[in-house]
Design brief:
4-stranded antiparallel β-sheet; about 280 residues; N-terminal domain of MutM-like DNA repair proteins; DNA-binding; 10 strands
Amino acid sequence: MPELPEVETVARGLSLRMEGKRLKTLDLHRPDLRRPMPTGLKALVEGRVILGIARRAKYVLMHLSDGGTLIVHLGMSGRMLLSDPGVPPTALEKHDHVVFTLEDGTVVRFNDARRFGLLDYAAPGQLADHRVFEGLGPEPLGNEFSGPVLAEALAGKSTPLKAALLDQRVVAGIGNIYACESLYYAGLSPRRIAATVTAARAEKLAQAIRDVLTKAIAAGGSSLRDYVQTSGELGYFQHQWAVYGKEGEPCPGCDCDKAIQRIVQSGRSTFYCAKRQR
DNA sequence: ATTGGTTCCTGCTGGC
DNA sequence: TGCCAGCAGGAACCAA
């Protein structure tokens, strides 16, 4: 499920094939995804050159030559499917909701079965003020994120720590999987009340978040190279998770015989080791 | 204001 | 073998 590392991988992969090229057509095959498509979008972006592709939180940003920006959110099941270089694009498949055609013939399909995804647009100069970035917390891999910053964001919060990490206002880009994994490596219980995380623990958690995300991006990046060479398609990858999805399995990081537990918090599965995580 | 619960959607899985 | 309930989840939304 696309969280920060997966979105980063997708953005990098798209950069390789889309940057510096002109967007010939943008075809919308339905009027909405999670929200209605922006009005007049086609006319706003067609003919622009894609200057660069970046990521903020879980959003892919396509910077256009007139200063406008296309904003893509993959939701839960969203994928960006690239045509093979020098090969005529294949026919559209089910759930190909948005199709980008570049001047050199490259076709990129935004396929999203569950339609939790999003396509939006920021006019020139309006990106920073766009609604999707309102209240968004710091980038966990950026300089503005640190133990003290995290501690401050958690202070006064009476929610479980796991729920706080999923709150994009606390820190941007973390989803269910990396919240579980980060808490595991920090040795902190997902059930702990967020406000009880003081300086030392926040420092450890911030570091765990950075480590987990960095490693996941590295894994995605290496998979990406292979994947692009063989099929030209971007997808998601096999991950080595410590606790996520490992209910009943032994805790990998300590000698305890306690199996990894699954509990439900805020309606979502949390996986953790009750002995290692306090 | 904060927080917890619900909803959107479809594909896959497990149980009978 | 086939059916169907249950589950997966990001973020907007609503209600307390």
